[in-house]
Write a structure and sequence with these properties.
A hairpin with a 4-residue loop joins strand 3 and strand 4. This protein has two domains: about 120 residues, Disulphide bond isomerase, DsbC/G, N-terminal (Nuclear Transport Factor 2, Chain: A), CATH 3.10.450.70; about 140 residues, Glutaredoxin, CATH 3.40.30.10. The chain is built from ten helices and 13 strands. The strands form four sheets. The chain has a five-stranded mixed beta sheet. The protein has a four-stranded antiparallel beta sheet with strand order 2-3-4-5, covered by helices on one side. The chain is of the alpha+beta class and about 290 residues long.
């Protein structure tokens, strides 16, 4: 079995606090796969013992599979069973399929699963390059982000006519999240609504996770978030409040849309627009 790994990546949102393995401990990541592939390639390129009479090698005994999703799943089930593949979709590139892992990360493979590619699929066009992978991610994000309800978020509404809306996955302990929070009054004055989604980088059991749970349990979430982002006590919370399931759902949704650190900023049309950005800079995304 031969693997090819591409290291091409597109960076969006350079200013932010990275997530940790604690947030995605239940799913293999692209980095895991690279390490596993390297080990497998090394073992499979080692000298083989001669196959005796009546014994066939893996290659000789392999039954050609019909190219497509079934063949890919069969190959990965045998060779990389630890990968939790949640979706396989054919791309516009002939013979290339996109894989989505439970961690939210994406990879690509050929029609029978014998090659793996990590990175983005780029289409060379008459004038420049189109990022097909990002285009597809945007479509998926629109559906995922549409499931978020205002009553489950921390909302800072625009002043006057709303000209744009930003969904921000946040962690109260992240310095760049605190810096972004200071931009919210200016964003609101520019007509941009900011809605926070909980994404504690170290999990709900961490100190920051407990603070963010207190924010979601506060009688006035917006005020409580400001207190938390300025490193002050959140204040009074609702008695008996338990937001564990709600915040875990938001963490999972963050993985689904590709959050790897905070703040992670998204627009309703599925674009990832940061990373920390100043109000004036972010407003450009809405033509302001």
């Amino acid at each position: 079995m031969v693997f090819k790994v591409s290291l091409l990546a597109v960076a969006v949102g350079l200013y932010g606090c990275k997530g940790t393995d604690n947030t995605v401990a239940d799913a293999a990541t692209t980095q895991d796969v690279v390490a596993q592939v390297a080990a497998k390639v090394a073992s499979e390129t080692a000298p083989k013992a001669e196959v005796g009479a009546g014994v066939t090698s893996d290659v000789e005994s392999a039954v050609p599979a019909t190219p497509g999703e079934a063949a890919i799943r069969a190959k990965f089930r045998k060779s990389l069973p630890q990968l939790n593949i949640v979706a396989i979709e054919e791309t516009i590139a002939p013979g290339i399929y996109g894989l989505t892992l439970a961690s939210g990360e994406e990879m690509m493979t050929n029609a029978d699963g014998t090659f793996i590619f990590s990175g983005d699929l780029l289409a060379v066009q008459g004038r420049g390059i189109l990022n097909i992978s990002e285009q597809n991610r945007g479509k998926k994000r629109v559906k995922a982000l549409a499931t978020l309800k205002d009553e489950n978020l921390v909302v800072y509404p625009a002043e006057g006519e709303e000209k744009g809306e930003v969904l921000a996955f946040t962690d109260t302990s992240c310095g760049y999240c605190q810096k972004f929070h200071a931009e919210i009054p200016a964003l609101n004055k520019l007509g941009i609504t900011v809605k926070y989604v909980a994404w504690p980088r170290y999990g709900l059991q961490s100190p920051a996770g407990k603070v963010i749970a207190d924010v979601w349990c506060a009688k006035d979430r917006a005020h409580a978030m400001t207190m938390a982002k300025t490193r002050r006590s959140v204040g009074e919370t609702v008695a008996g409040c338990d937001v564990t399931a709600l915040i875990n759902e938001q963490i999972s949704l963050g993985r689904q849309v590709g959050v790897k650190g905070t703040p992670a900023l998204y627009t309703l049309d599925g674009r990832q627009v940061g990373g920390y950005r100043s109000a004036a800079d972010l407003a450009k995304e809405f033509g302001i």
